Amino acid sequence: MPALTVPLGDRSYPIHIGDGLLGDAALLAAVLPARRIAVVTNDIVGPLYAPRLQATWAAAGATPLLEIVLPDGERHKTLPTVSRILDTLVANRFARDDLVVALGGGVVGDMAGFAAACYQRGIGFVQMPTTLLAQVDSSVGGKTGVNHPGGKNLIGAFHQPRAVIADTATLATLPPRELRAGLAEVVKHALICDAAFFSWLEANADALLALDPAALAHAVHRCCTIKAGVVSRDERETGERALLNLGHTFGHAIEQVTGFGPWLHGEAVGVGLAMAAGMSQRAGWLPAADAARLDALLARLGLRTEARGAVTPQAARAAMQLDKKVQGGRVRLVLLKGIGQAFVTADWPTDAFDDTLQEHLA
Amino acid sequence: MPALTVPLGDRSYPIHIGDGLLGDAALLAAVLPARRIAVVTNDIVGPLYAPRLQATWAAAGATPLLEIVLPDGERHKTLPTVSRILDTLVANRFARDDLVVALGGGVVGDMAGFAAACYQRGIGFVQMPTTLLAQVDSSVGGKTGVNHPGGKNLIGAFHQPRAVIADTATLATLPPRELRAGLAEVVKHALICDAAFFSWLEANADALLALDPAALAHAVHRCCTIKAGVVSRDERETGERALLNLGHTFGHAIEQVTGFGPWLHGEAVGVGLAMAAGMSQRAGWLPAADAARLDALLARLGLRTEARGAVTPQAARAAMQLDKKVQGGRVRLVLLKGIGQAFVTADWPTDAFDDTLQEHLA
Predict the structure, then answer these.
(1) In the CATH scheme, what is the code of domain A4-173?
(2) Judged by CB atoms within 8 Å, which residues 27-66 of B form the interface with A?
(3) Among A101, A355, B21, B284, which residue's CB has the most CB atoms within a 10 Å radius?
(4) Is A324's CB within 8 Å of B86's CB?
């Protein structure tokens, strides 16, 4: 499959998607020209894929990659963990022309990218996403950062990678729960702007759940194409890019209230998508049939559409006050006028919001 | 005095320089339009100038500014201190359209700016420098960050302020030692590219040391003009901007080896300037008369030209290995071909380097 490009002028970069790319020595040599390289990974992904990456690298005759292994899990996505990465870069005397590689899911990518953004005011980094969620969403676009006890992703930087290498073979080891969580972000992309892709997902849900390589590769390619376009038109999220937050204001509230751990990010986003659709329907913007199609697809993919018993409406309301999308005191929500037609508004009916919290949370 | 501008496209910003600007309600209202404002200051500067700023702000009918008071001193310029600023912004539910103000010297500006760069992936900030060093140098150009035990300014971001307000009246309370440290950065600007300004400094050294308001205002204006030009042509330091590091590779080594505290940044830079000139002379690039003029000016300004007894050549050498200006394993140095003629090179004679360390350190 030919590489996609995220066109951002002198910060443009390729997205390579394919089966077995971690074993492609020529590709690695082209993408990793730096003098020294630190691979940031975690204690689950590292043992699975770092040896393969090292072997490919060694075959090119290069010195071993420095490995920085973090504890797995969203609850470790904190400033102290990033500080550990920075300490290791300092201890190994990394310079401005050296490179950081993120090998793992979204949490690893967010932290490795933020460390690269801050080290010596910015060194290069390459994303090698190994989860569906990271391959379809978080590895593209340059959003990096960590959580704060007060809110999700409150501390971070925009720092674009030099390249993204999505080896779809790594999805074969993905636990079913992580697969489903990633599929929530796939559904998000379709909902925002691609009704035909949404129909394709309805037709191919079983293939995706069965880890069919061709289906997964198509989904990754389609999502990256959509995201690359949005990011290139609005890198810093002053407009259109905010659409990519569909489901995320509600989803972040769920993650934050539950303490960044029990819910995977994609699981919370799945509920958030259902809430955005439900609220859009209540406001009279979304046909009931479209909301029903979404609920049905989420259910087929094994995703929850409510977080009752986990989050109360009151707690979610408080959490959303600190969302980054709050401007002038009122949260801007991404809502729907149809499948494939998302829009942003701060001018939504309060009762539709209240009723949605009441129905999906308790 | 009319405002200068740092021309950076849609991130261009004004530098206002003048006597009593912290009392100028119309200027503050024009520069601080945000919904909420956090003033980051320290326990020395805060009691001196925060009440004046609050009073001016209150006269405009605005709600009080939130104050975040840090401990004074370079040894507190660390990630944990920035984390405290972030905690306060989160606790007060600051949003993307709110603002951070840095009221203080270079340390306060570097940390407030880095916190603004990281909070919600970047919110606006305004520099209100109260030391000569910050007014002539660190408040302009968007370099923000903190020190790491392993090296100076190793962690940070490029994040341009929305405006710089340099109230030269604040220099009246500047301790003599801080004044001298700031003058080292003034000399640096002249040495890099402005021989006429260097001559002016020789003629006006006494006036500057006596805190003559007109002389100080001229020096601030001249340095900001030089720096705004360099930054606008090379914001991210891929070329010309590196010239502004004249004296800083040696200076940073002194600060780091002595533990970020006993030497003020400007004091270390003063020694660094003398070392850069001495090495340039040894290499045959700088006329001896020019090096002698520099030494004489530094001496008149009460600045040291060596750090004997404080830093050994060996320790300085190790510290310089982690300097951000190291590329491909060899440190790039800013050296001199004449007063007003700095240049960057990694191709310098090793014995000139060794002899310079030997003469100025022990």
Answers:
(1) 3.40.50.1970
(2) 35
(3) A101
(4) no
Residue B360 Cα to chain centre, angstroms? 23
In the stretch 160-189 of chain B, residues with CB closer than 8 A to chain A read none
Per the DSSP assignment, residues forming a β-bridge with B12 are none
pLDDT the model gives residue A327: 63
Measure the CA angle with vertex A255, ends A250 and A260; round to 5°.
165
Task: Measure A95 CA to nearest chain B CA, in Å.
Answer: 6
Please give the structure tokens belonging to residue B24.
Answer: 């100028």
- Altogether, the residues listed in chain B come to a count of 362
Query: Does A93 sit within 8 Å of B119, measured CB to CB?
Result: no
**Is A15 within 8 Å of chain B by CB?**
no
d(CA A245, nearest CA chain B) in Å: 14
**For residue A348, which amino acid is it?**
W
pLDDT beneath 50, residues of chain A: none
Pairing of strands B124-129, B163-167: parallel
- In this complex, which of B90, B156, B328 lies closest to A154 when CB atoms are compared? B90
Which residue in B79, B93, B327 is closest to A321 by CB distance? B93
E strand or H helix that includes residue A189:
helix A176-193
Q: Which CATH number does B176-360 carry?
A: 1.20.1090.10
Residues 6+ apart with CB under 8 A from B102: B40, B41, B108, B109, B111, B112, B113, B125, B126, B127, B128, B129, B139, B161
Radius of gyration of chain B (CA): 20
ipTM of the complex: 0.91
**Chain A residue closest in CA terms to B142:** A121
Tokens describing residue A60 = 């090119």
- Cα dihedral B232/B236/B239/B245 (nearest 10): 90
Nearest by CB to residue A90, choosing from B120, B122, B150, is B150
In angstroms, the CA A173 to CA A113 distance is 24
List, for residues B211-233, the tens digit of each pLDDT value. 999 999 999 999 999 999 999 99
CA angle A309, A310, A313 (to 5 degrees): 85
- Any idea where the domains of chain B sit in the sequence? 4-173, 176-360
